Amino acid sequence: MVDENYKSSGVDLNFSENLTEKILSIVGKNNQLEDLGFFSSSLKINNSISISGSVDGVGTKSKIFKYYGDYSNLGHDIVNHCVNDILPSGAKPFMFLDYLAFSEIEEEKILDVVRGISEACKDMSCILAGGETAQMPDIYKKDDLEVVGFILGIVEKSKVPKINTIKEGDVMIGLPSNGLHTNGYSLVRKIFNFESNGEELNKIVPGTNNSLGEMLTMPHKNYYHSIWGHLDKFKSIAHITGGGISENVSRSIPENLKSNIDIKSWDIPKIFCYIKDKGSISLKEMFKVFNMGIGMIIIVDPKFTDIALKTDKDSKIIGKIFNRSNNDEKVNIIGI
Question: Is the pTM of this model over 0.85?
Answer without folding.
Answer: yes
